[in-house]
Design brief:
The chain has 245 residues and is of the alpha/beta class. Helices cover 33% and strands 20% of the residues. The chain is globular.
Length: 245
């Protein structure tokens, strides 16, 4: 995975996933209203910003694939890097692997050496990403987590997680894709109890209408978290801070 490889317009297909009529209707409705955000997401960030990020992390100029579309944009990758440099987290958990996994692993290697566990619903893609990370001398544990019933009353489908770390310092939410349901990433709240006081959650694509609805529910239901929206970059980032106990 390098800059010589292109990025497909659409995310990987969730083959065999049975969406309800209600879920399909929500996807259609939100697709009609959020097309400006989807078009904006095709831009993965300025080449100069990407080059600066790779230089900052002492990585080769072609270390990352082309960004944009369903992949994390440069602004989100910078956000992850600065969070790791500031927090020096012992445990990072990521939902949705890919270019962000590579950057997390390198930032952890450079700034403190914490552990990363990443989950993705596509087993083959998880294996390819695992190999890519290891071939570059980085450490990450990438696990296949098929999609199934969502917890806590959230719609859509959610990762069937296994062996989730008990104590999480940084939770990064970059999946599943909105085409499953506009509110699909809201179920990440099922992991908030595992975030240590002082820990954080970073939600990608937070400027989209569906993620804004998710953010409102999170604010309403999780009083031990404080959320702020950064609308910069192609997609926006929601930052949640876990308050002291």
């Amino acid at each position: 995975m390098t800059t010589r490889e292109t990025t497909a317009l659409l995310p990987l297909d969730d083959i065999g996933l049975d969406l309800t009529l209600g879920d399909r209707a929500m996807v259609t409705a939100y697709g009609a209203i959020q097309w400006p955000w989807l078009l904006r997401s095709l831009h993965g960030g300025r080449k100069a910003d990407k080059a600066a990020l790779l230089e900052y992390l002492d990585l080769p100029a072609d270390a990352l694939p082309n960004l944009g579309s369903w992949k994390a944009d440069t602004h989100f990758l910078w956000y992850i890097t600065h969070a790791i440099e500031e927090m020096r987290p012992a445990q990072v958990v990521e939902l949705g692997c890919g270019a962000s996994t590579f950057i997390i692993a390198r930032a952890l290697q450079k700034f403190g050496g914490g552990s990363l566990v990443s989950y993705d619903q596509h087993g083959e893609f998880a294996s390819i990403t695992q190999q890519w990370v290891r071939e570059n001398g980085l450490m990450a544990e990438i696990r296949h987590a098929p999609l199934g019933p969502s917890p806590a009353g959230w719609p859509g489908h959610w990762y069937q997680l296994s062996d989730v770390p008990t104590d999480i310092d940084l939770l990064i939410v970059d999946g599943p894709p909105w085409a499953i349901h506009p509110y699909v990433r809201g179920a990440a709240a099922s992991l908030f109890a595992r975030i240590r006081p002082g820990g954080r959650v970073l939600l990608d694509d937070a400027a989209r209408p569906g993620e804004r609805v998710v953010a409102r529910r999170w604010r309403r239901e999780h009083h031990m978290m404080r959320f702020t929206l950064d609308s910069k970059g192609a997609k926006g980032t929601l930052i949640g801070h876990k308050l002291p106990a």
